[in-house]
Amino acid sequence: MARARVVFALSLGLLTSSSVSQSKPTAEERTARYFDSVRKQPNLLLAFLREMPKGGDLHNHLGGSVYAESLIDFAAADGLCVDRTSSILIAPPCDGSCDRFTSKPAVRCAYGDHALYNSMVDAWSMRNWNPGEGSGHDHFFATFDKSSLARVTHRADEIAEAATRAAQDHLQLLELMHTADGLEAAELGSKIGWNDHLPELRERLLAGGLRDIARSTRKKLDEDESKVRSQLNCGTAQPSPGCAVTVRYLYQVLRGLAPEAVFAQTVLGFELASSDPRFLGLNLVQPEDWYIPMRDFELHMQMLDYLHGVYPKVHISLHAGELAFGLVPPEGLRFHIRDSIERGHAERIGQGVDIMNERDPIGLLRRMAQQGVLVEVCLTSNDLILGVRGDDHPLPIYVRYGVPVSLATDDEGVLRSDLTHEFLRAAETYDFLSYRDLKRMVRLSLEHSFLPGASLWSHTKAFRRGNLCTGTGDEPSSAACQKLLARSERARLQWKLEGELADFEKNY
Questions:
Q1: 8 A C-beta contact, residue 491 and residue 455
Q2: What is the pTM of this model?
Q3: What confidence tens digit (pLDDT) does each residue in 136-146 have?
């Protein structure tokens, strides 16, 4: 009898231990509970999100990624002048004095003139802009022309700053949109002229020097990246955190140019993405509502449809639906996202703000979910440029219909933001977004990046791994996992992200 009581007690102890073990929350569950406890406390929420690993920023324009203060430094170093009234940069010679009554002082004068300095920062960014001062859309796009001269000889500095800020945001990947040839391809296109027989026009471009432009573009990027590595001390005993961020590029086509220039740039983008692994694909940029992008939208889709057939492995992401009701006539809102997917072969959509104005929006949402077309959501950009925010923004609808989404910065320097604050805005605006939802967006950013190689995940609905790689340690769990990580850049970054997420969640 005594022995029976001992056995019963041991069994009860085992059951109790098992129950306690089963009820013990996971690290993810503890982290989610902490997130819920601070989501109404902005400062604590910001600290939490600052440290959270964020995967990839898939929608980031290099030309808009740099803060105005850095551009002032670039312009001063190059001896540029500035129009005191408009803040437009001008080539030297400048006025010989820094007197406040001079109309064209040297930029370096701003270091001793706080009024001039502040006016330049405000003119080159969205700082201190408010709706009473006119259109946010127009102010935003005007910043680029005003400060463009500061960027000409400072591409390496821009890349270094973007990588450094990405590291501060705990990113693993940065896909930068970059017109890396300057405007050489566009100039060649203008020289050769327009021909609506696209195969013939492509051959004329290639024979006329486009391949040489591709070679010189790759060489220039080699030089810029070498400067970046030197500037960030990469490969030394004390590298900058930015060295750990994988930086890749999407060739940026300026769709506001004439058709011959747009086609030449688009061909160059396909050529670069086919010959240089640093270029993962291409995108068409500049305001969607401008006259030429609206007039030539169908022609641009025709160009992409043809070139996709010539270069079927090249990835395409397209700005589409960066529009709001009233910005263009209603008929201009009804087809850009759909046509970008169906005819432009877009695997990702940048912005996608006007989705509910499209023809059959629910059918389009379901198609995007089925095909896995990710939307690069830029909340701060959509608010300041289009005035679309909160319940008017389609982010909740995309999530409801299972369309993959990731958060992105767009032009973080001009917008005075970073990816951490994009996550903060999302968490504060949309109560339905849980920690697991944000974590899913982070994972989706790498899953839908244009990095080459197989995925770490066998199933991305629930993010289940295959049998090759398990665990989150520093070392792969098997020889098969090692082989996967060795041959797949995508899987390597996903493995790195999972390790950083696990370390992050251990804090809670």
A1: yes
A2: 0.93
A3: 999 999 999 99
Half-sphere exposure at residue 312, Cβ-oriented, CA atoms within 13 angstroms: 1
Name the one residue in this structure whose structure tokens are 């002032």: 72
Measured CA to CA in angstroms, residue 362 lies from 168, 344, 397, 403, 432 at distances of: 38, 20, 10, 11, 21
State yes or no: pLDDT of 12 exceeds 70.
no
Report how far apart, in Å, the C-alpha atoms of 257 and of each of 143, 185, 223, 286, 411 are. 18, 12, 28, 9, 21
446: CB partners within 8 A, 6+ apart: 55, 56, 172, 173, 490, 493, 494, 497
DSSP 3-42: HHHHHHHHHHHHHHHHHHHHHSPPHHHHHHHHHHHHTT-H
Q: Are residues 121 and 168 in the same domain?
A: no
- Enumerate residues 6+ apart whose C-beta is below 8 A from 406: 55, 56, 58, 374, 375, 376, 377, 441, 442, 444, 445, 448
**Domain count within the chain:** 2
Same domain, 249 and 109: no
What Rg, from alpha-carbon coordinates, does the chain have? 25
Distances (CA, A) of 285 to 298, 371, 433, 499: 15, 23, 30, 35
Q: Is the pLDDT of residue 463 over 50?
A: yes
8 Å CB contact between 115 and 84: no
Please state, as a whole number, how many other Cβ atoms lie within 10 Å of the Cβ of residue 173: 26
Last residue in a domain, options 454, 471, 500: 454
Find all residues with CB under 8 Å of 217, minimum gap 6, and list them.
Answer: 180, 181, 184, 268, 272
Distances in Å between the Cα of 391 and the Cα atoms of 33, 113, 130, 441 are 25, 43, 21, 19
Give the range of the structural domain holding residue 364, as residue numbers without chain letter: 55-61+152-454
268 CB burial (10 A radius; 0-12, 13-18, 19+): buried
Q: What is the pLDDT of residues 356-366, one digit of tens each?
A: 999 999 999 99
Tell me: do 303 and 348 sit in the same domain: yes
Q: Give a yes or no: residue 226 inside a domain.
A: yes
Amino acid at 477: S
Q: Is residue 44 part of a domain?
A: no
CA nearest neighbour of 282 among 197, 331, 217, 370: 217
Residue 366 located in a structural domain: yes
